[in-house]
């Protein structure tokens, strides 16, 4: 607003009859970003608005208050001070209207001021304003806190309840930033007043105040709970419903905010909540309970109508007992959500009580009861992976088995609620069933007949809201997905009509969900003749085709209609001979549409793979060229789905795929075969393998073409492994068996090995030689007649003194790969040639020779294994390489083939497990571990026996061997290992440092791969684990290096291993850890060596997500080491690496800070707020902080996109 325009606006205020419109126009102008005021204009506008606050017209006053908000951000700081001073003065006025409007104005101004603003503030006597001031500017008022407290405390006994309420809010904000002395004064005052209990009204206020303090500063009140909780328990038993509600709300706050300190009182809280959950003195439920056994749907319909009428009769406006029940349900919800370790106890006591209260008459209370039970189910879900472990299931009652036993009781209670009039109740039921099936798939198999009528009731109910229908459909979908098809056969006739109606619903979300359910229902068709789907096919087809044809519908509905129709044709296409051609033409149209093409490709893939052999020949001439064109689109998902579709079309419709169609696809393939996307490459190679089987004549054009060139480039990539490598080997096998001209065995072999023999340059990575060798072996197994000559050539290449190391490397690896599949014992000089290669000057050639010997031995164990064992015993200089050969033999041989040699191998290995060379010991340990898997009953007890060995080397080898018996897949050794792993982990108390370190590494492997092995041992292991996180001064020594002294910490590796174990336990055994003890050691790690700091920063970020309330309680102690790391300066004369390490430390510490700030209310900590200000004022730290925040935000967005 220009200055000359301003005078026009201000002149309008001279007319007292026009004040309202003038003030309204001024407010509109002030809200514009373009407004610019000079000093004189600022002064005039401020003066005018402050004057308007005293106007007699209330509407003008309200507009003036609204002007204050945008004004304070447009004027200079001294003008803001003028506004605040005037408003504070007005609040002391005798006029009540002026006091009230000035109070609202001050609240508006404070709300607009930036946090931690340097502007002048005042602690207003109004509770509302004090609350706002403290929430936004609390850190700047530290000097005023004692006087503010003394002003606020008397207000807790004010005769006006509104004043008390605002005072409680203000105290809640005060405790977030006040010093400890003020906090102690406040708590002591509350305890004294609660102990005195003069007046029930003020007692209620003090209980509310205690709960508010706990909510805002739970980390501070924890140490006083021992005094507070007995008082709250006492007041719970007073016959005053309002007081009981506040007491139970206080318990909820303590449980959520002080999990450790409240732990001794949890059982008391649960028993109180269970008692008051059923507290309903004005209502008798006995009449309803008489019908509990009546499960007949029609009969229950009448019962529900009657019970709803009864509710109306029993409604009582003065009855406050429902608030007590609601508070109890919420408190139980808090207990269940925060005490995962008590799950078995919850299923024994809390679960039956909650289920029994599903009949609750008050809708809001019932919703909270459902929510509490939902929390119990969600708490059970994360433990599913551990508790489903076969060993764990043998232990008797786990939460999952207890839940399984309670399913009939839960279904019985839900069955009645599913036909309640209340929409909210039915939605809760559907959410509950969905979660129950997610936690226990298949749990409702025997209860389907009881539940289906309830679901259909909501789908048919004319009064149902859209959200209820969507929830009902979503629940039905999850139930269909997680139960056997046979369970639904009797109910298809009842389900189809409401589903057809929902597919035709005008609301797109209902249509979309209904199509999804229909798609799942179509899969119910059995292989047997016990169920005939033909009566329902027309209805299902017609409602879906109507949506499939429509062009003017929501994108989601379009896609789901395509998917649903694809499933219908896949499962029921044999019943639709007349409708099929027209439907396939619609699919062809959808394939040409950019928006629907991806979904259509998936649907066609489904149809092409149908066991009904649907006739797709009419559309293939048009569809295949379109699919081929998709391979050049810049959409990865489309490429992958298209390759899958083409592959299955080629397999099942090879006679209908013409050479022209194949040529169109082959023209698009070369760019897809690249290391930049291995999955796409794998799918392209799978297509080529299928092509070799179905259209071998089409491969002739590959000779000398771009596809083979791309394959040769890919085979040399260091990234080629896993599925892509397997697809490559399958293709080469298929290629040479076609005997295509120019692509025979020797032609392909020359293409693969030519570059190595050309000696132009060595390949960039050893992995390239390994991949080529595997391809050579694949070719040789496909053409066994060519094998002997090629093997002979490779042997000559290794022997030839003029061969380069690259040629020797490839020849040895190829011999190993071929020998793995083909017996090479007919080659007389093979053993000698490989042993001579052990003496090569190239480490890579020696390693390849070692691998080759082991791999060749797998092809003929009786010939080669005794030879390897003999060489290990007689050739000490080659021992390390020969042990690697033995490791390859043990890792790759079959159990049956290796069993006769176990004793001799075991004896030999034990001779070397005390070797002083750590590398050798590690190989021996791996061999011992893998050998133990072959005969665990015999060998595991033997391993255990060697724990008593006097040699620390032997003990470390044995403990390391155990690590190699643990994998993330179920194995026969698991039950034996579970019983004996405790003995191996007792080496955590071993006097030798190295033995303790390898014990920690083994423990880490178990915690990561198979947590069930160690979960029950954590109580005994954790103290030893934590003990290893301490810095031991006796292990730190000084080493003189010329004129310099260098400090060496022999305990560092041990501490690193201990902290790595702690990090792993966060993912696998969090529910078995005392998080506060854990945090003590994390806190120590924040001050340790560089490597350990990096680990603990990661842990802190992880803990911020997993246990935010516990971290919040320790926040002040965690901030200081983070601040120390971020503000440490490296000496100016330090080497470059020191600067880089410090920068990396700062970035990692800042990631932890960002994670901590993600905890709700973390910024309320005075120390954290101060640290934030320090970061903001330091240019370097601010830049790091901003970049990490941006990274975390973009990472969250990406995770949302991919979910």
UniProtKB/TrEMBL annotation:
Gene3D superfamilies: Leucine-rich Repeat Variant
Signal peptide: none
Pfam families membership: TIP120, TPR_CAND1
Region (Disordered): 287-319
GO cellular component, one term: nucleus
Domain of life of the source: Eukaryota
UniProtKB keywords: Repeat, Ubl conjugation pathway
Name recorded for this polypeptide: Cullin associated and neddylation dissociated 1
